[in-house]
């Protein structure tokens, strides 16, 4: 098992396998996206309170889930980087950050668009919004640190430490912010009661969440392939890809 | 060659860092002046209305403390990095996290403690009610070491970089959020006559968490930066 993993994680092997998976993942993504969006935008009934504008939930909630998921995935890669110094984990860690930051931004932007008709304002200093915003800063910190360090292998390890420190802090920040908000003002905005969501809305929501997961893997594979080529440009297997000439 | 015990090493390193910073007065005068200046700017910007000022005083003091702590962070490892003594520390037989803790403690004595001494004066100037004074001191006493400890991770990650200072704020200010929230809400609660032991206990627990975990992260980060 570990041997297999070791083989899979070697850069040339990953490069080849990821290349093979990309068309399949694209097809799967399109399938999920189309059914999810059709279910969400056409089949699901309008909400009895929010009318049709609640439908942004099918983008907003999966994006928010992904923003947290990717950060945890990065911290996991961080541990692998620190403990085993695996090259592939370094690349996955680095390439995840912009994707995670985009999902976080997407969650914030759609939340703000949703907030305007529902709460009557673009932005509320609500606990969830605020901790999502701080999460965005954490992502930007990771990207900034990686860009600032010349040697990319050192950069990856520095970023790994930052991601691990961050993941310990994310729950603390989240609960502090929640506590802060509940102290300052009562809940002036009523939210969706999640468990009571109807299945006709839940199924498209889950499909969209799955689609976003697939998108993450797809985007990750593509940017990892690029990053691997860049890092290993002087190695033999990259030269072979170019038809055997030494670059 | 004489071998020192871990406690001795901690002690000597602390003493060395304190001596160095007392010889270079600017190191502790600058963050303190910055702290006072930032607080002075607020009444000028938002108006000197006493009711408003006393309401936002806890927030102002804590945001200023956060910024002052951040400004001074770079000095924890900078000079040692430049003259190579950081490398010697990493090579020493003693565990690096303990040595890091000594350096951070010295840094706190130089930058955190002065804030503790001037903040009551500033609080009076901002019209903070006297019931909140004790809580303000407590939050500064518990909170500023956390700032130094968490900040040391960020400094350790950026110490080798030519423009580390700019990225440092992006790395650590988000991590300061919980301290800011609990400290300012404790002061605000005390000003309103509420029981604030919950906030103080939370701050204390952050402090213990930071003391036990952050030196490990800082030591690991230093090893990476010194590569």
Q: Could you describe the 3D structure shown?
A:
- The complex is a heterodimer of chains A (247) and B (227).
- Chain A has helices spanning 2-8, 11-43, 57-84, 87-119, 127-148, 152-184, 199-231, 236-241.
- Chain A contains 8 helices and no strands.
- Helices cover 79% and strands 0% of the residues of chain A.
- With 227 residues, chain B is mainly alpha-helical.
- Chain B is 83% helix and 0% strand.
- Chain B is built from 9 helices and no strands.
- In chain B, helix 1 (6-23) crosses helix 6, helix 2 (26-46) packs parallel to helix 6 (96-125) and helix 3 (50-73) packs antiparallel against helix 6.
- Chain B is elongated.
- The mean pLDDT of chain B is 89.
- The chains are: A mainly alpha (247), B mainly alpha (227).
- The interface between A and B is medium-sized, with 28 and 28 residues.
In short:
The complex is a heterodimer of chains A (247) and B (227). By secondary structure, chain A is mostly helical. Chain A has helices spanning 2-8, 11-43, 57-84, 87-119, 127-148, 152-184, 199-231, 236-241.
């Amino acid at each position: 098992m570990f041997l297999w993993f070791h083989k899979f994680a070697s850069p040339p092997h990953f490069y080849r396998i990821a290349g093979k998976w990309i068309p399949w993942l694209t097809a799967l993504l399109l399938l999920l996206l189309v059914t999810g969006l059709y279910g969400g935008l056409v089949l699901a009934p309008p909400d009895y309170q929010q009318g049709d504008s609640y439908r942004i939930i099918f983008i907003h909630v999966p994006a928010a889930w992904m923003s947290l998921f990717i950060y945890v995935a990065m911290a996991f890669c961080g541990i692998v980087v620190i403990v085993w110094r695996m090259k592939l984990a370094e690349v996955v860690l680095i390439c995840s950050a912009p994707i995670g930051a985009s999902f976080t931004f997407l969650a914030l932007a759609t939340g703000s668009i949703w907030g305007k008709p529902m709460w009557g304002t673009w932005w509320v200093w609500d606990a969830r919004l605020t901790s999502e915003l701080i999460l965005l800063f954490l992502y930007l910190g990771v990207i900034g640190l990686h860009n600032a360090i010349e040697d990319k292998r050192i950069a990856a390890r520095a970023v790994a430490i930052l991601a691990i420190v961050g993941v310990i802090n994310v729950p603390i920040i989240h609960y502090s912010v929640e506590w802060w908000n509940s102290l300052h003002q009562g809940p002036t905005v009523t939210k969706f009661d999640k468990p009571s969501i109807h299945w006709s809305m839940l199924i498209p929501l889950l499909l969209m969440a799955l689609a976003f997961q697939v998108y993450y893997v797809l985007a990750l594979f593509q940017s990892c392939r690029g990053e691997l080529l860049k890092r290993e440009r002087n190695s033999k297997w990259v030269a072979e890809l170019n038809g055997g000439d030494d670059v | 060659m004489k071998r020192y015990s871990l406690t001795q090493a901690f002690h000597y390193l602390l003493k060395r860092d304190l001596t160095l910073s007392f010889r270079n007065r600017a190191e502790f005068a600058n963050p303190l002046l910055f702290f006072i200046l930032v607080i002075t700017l607020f009444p000028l910007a938002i108006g000197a209305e006493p009711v408003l000022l006393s309401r936002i005083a806890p927030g102002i003091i804590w945001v200023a403390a956060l910024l002052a702590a951040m400004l001074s962070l770079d000095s924890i490892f900078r000079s040692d990095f430049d003259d190579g003594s950081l490398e010697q520390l990493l090579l020493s037989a003693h565990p690096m996290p303990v040595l890091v803790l000594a350096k951070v403690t010295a840094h706190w004595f130089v930058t955190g403690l002065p804030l503790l001494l001037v903040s009551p004066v500033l609080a009076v100037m901002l019209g903070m009610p006297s019931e909140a004074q004790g809580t303000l001191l407590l939050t500064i006493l518990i909170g500023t070491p956390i700032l130094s400890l968490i900040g040391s991770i960020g400094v350790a990650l950026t110490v080798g970089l030519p423009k580390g200072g700019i990225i440092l704020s992006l790395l650590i200010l988000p991590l300061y959020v919980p301290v800011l929230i609990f400290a300012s809400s404790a002061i605000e609660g005390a000003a309103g006559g509420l029981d604030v032991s919950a906030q103080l206990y939370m701050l204390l627990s952050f402090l213990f968490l930071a003391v036990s975990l952050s030196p490990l992260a800082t030591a690991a980060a230093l090893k990476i930066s010194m590569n």
